[in-house]
């Protein structure tokens, strides 16, 4: 008779563009590699309760659980596991030895248990995002690992084409919900504009998918933090030809706003492809744009 899978609750503790990882002792199951904090769900607790308890025991840190990031069933040769990955925000900064903060785009340089590989891929955001126009030819410049497809009449074909090129894709939430399930699986993240962001009280309907939101003000960032969005666009940094009626906030105000975000922040609005270093000096994780990214 097949045994019930072992239920395990795991914390993805994210602070801006960094995630907390630690070394897993070689004597433990799937040990001798890195891990996220977590452990077995006891009979008298929910996975959410378990993840808070395990983080306190293993790391010495209290966390707020933002949302269920992913639920995975996985079979190792010797056991089956049911994994509940929760996106968490640290409420304290005490930390036991053996734990470290690493940039999300460096996670794939660390060895993790096999069951965590799809999670590593979801957490690994590229530093550049190329944004399309309605008629943009999909000739992405070298080094662009992420593309936001807007106003596309051939969206399904575009997603499949970029997927074959190993380029991750972002699509507007309303377009994502209209895609067939096969194409949905190829989408890296869905986009919420600022109005949609304020309408959502939970991201449960988008469980298993990254969410990036458009933010322009403090209230937008606060809402993105509360929902547990995975990344945000913060704009406009400069005045743009597409929205000449909007004044750019400038780098100083951008920095003040970016500091309040709990997730990776992309600078958008009149940004050139070569401005990544400048943007990072003002608190950006990455940059996004249209004209200079194709």
Explain how this protein is built.
There is one protein chain. The protein folds into 2 domains: 6-122, Nucleoside Triphosphate Pyrophosphohydrolase (Alpha-Beta Complex); 128-289, TIM Barrel. 23% of the residues lie in helices and 29% in strands. The chain is globular and about 60 Å long. The chain has an 8-stranded parallel β-barrel with strand order 8-9-10-11-12-13-14-15. Strands 1, 2, 3, 4, 5, 6 and 7 form a 7-stranded mixed β-sheet that branches. It is of the alpha/beta class.
Structure summary:
With 294 residues, the chain is of the alpha/beta class. It has helices spanning 47-58, 117-123, 155-164, 173-177, 181-184, 194-199, 218-227, 250-258, 276-281, and strands at residues 6-15, 18-24, 33-35, 38-40, 63-75, 80-90, 99-103, 128-131, 146-148, 168-172, 189-192, 210-215, 231-234, 265-268, 286-289.
Name its key features.
Nucleoside Triphosphate Pyrophosphohydrolase, TIM Barrel, 15 strands, 294 residues, 2 domains, alpha/beta
